[in-house]
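Morning!

This is the sequence you dropped in the shared folder:
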Amino acid sequence: MTTVASHQPPAWLHLGADEIGIACRYKAGPEIRSTDEGGHADALLPHGVPLGYYARTKRDRRLAIIAPGMVRDHRALLTDRPEYMLAAEARARRCPTTFCVITVGREAALGFVRVWEEIAARPPRFVAIGGNCAQVISRALVQVGAMPRRWPAPGSPDALFRALHRARPDARLATGFAEFVPEGEGFAIRLDPA
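The structure's back. Tokens below.
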């Protein structure tokens, strides 16, 4: 387990072509629950590419019970949720991110990319209980065999994190104020101490 502590210099997280994962926002460590500021989970595609499932609302950050769903890629996250992409913004908004990265093999990793392409093309309806960010990511992980099928699916980012880590105890874990730095086919993730 790699957890970045406040006395340490920035650490780096790199994902290979055979790795995927999740980013739990507003989560200050593997054993710490997400804060009420907006606990959220984003998927990590191979090479550290972030992608998220959100409610499409007239005002961003508005709590939605039922709304059309949408996928935000790294460009949209940089514009709409800069604290998810830039360490200085994350620190200013007190938004540490805890990552859970798993090795699934290249075929499953490419399958995960294809699942997200399908979700982006035809986003399901966002439902706070039954179709939120954690549940959509969970279904994508199950679909590529990265996590066992559970019913009900984990209902929160914390529950998703715990379920994925329980299913994959060999996962790499890391925490910090995240900066997504373009690198090769995706991003290296710099983790400033939380």
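Headline: The radius of gyration is 15 Å.

More detail when I'm at my desk.
O.
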